[in-house]
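$ ./design --mode recover --in tokens.txt
reading tokens...
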């Protein structure tokens, strides 16, 4: 059973461990930043002082990226919101396409998820509905569902 089911079409995430839905931000596909889709696992949980918040959960997906040191593998993660709009309850009002492929949660929601999701937990990321994304981009390939 999947511990997390992420729908990048609706920008929601369901956690089967506490039976709750969360608004998320996912890849800004209109600017060629895609959240990878398919089945993966939580590969790492880590406390950090990075710009995206004090903690993250890393997927077993990587992307190649250019940076000032040349090419490097960069992981996809569930992390904090950076500068996303958060409501007075400390949560996203609604999801959006804001990231460079990672899943963003409000810090409050990330604290909740971080406390119950474990390394090795299975994750399903539901593919984009828009077939044009797959046809126009060399960065993604469609998943065939049987």
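writing sequence...
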């Amino acid at each position: 059973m999947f511990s997390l089911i992420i729908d990048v079409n609706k920008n929601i995430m369901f956690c089967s461990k506490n039976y709750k839905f969360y608004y998320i931000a996912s890849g800004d596909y209109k600017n060629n930043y895609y959240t990878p889709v398919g089945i993966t696992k939580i590969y790492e949980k880590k406390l950090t002082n990075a710009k995206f918040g004090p903690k993250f959960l890393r997927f077993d997906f990587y992307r190649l990226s250019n940076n000032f040191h040349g090419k490097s593998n960069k992981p996809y993660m569930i992390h904090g919101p950076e500068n996303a709009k958060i409501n007075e309850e400390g949560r996203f009002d609604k999801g959006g396409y804001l990231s460079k492929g990672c899943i963003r949660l409000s810090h409050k929601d990330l604290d909740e998820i971080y406390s119950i999701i474990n390394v090795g937990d299975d994750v399903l990321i539901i593919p984009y509905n828009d077939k044009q994304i797959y046809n126009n981009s060399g960065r993604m390939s469609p998943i065939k569902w049987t």
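exit 0
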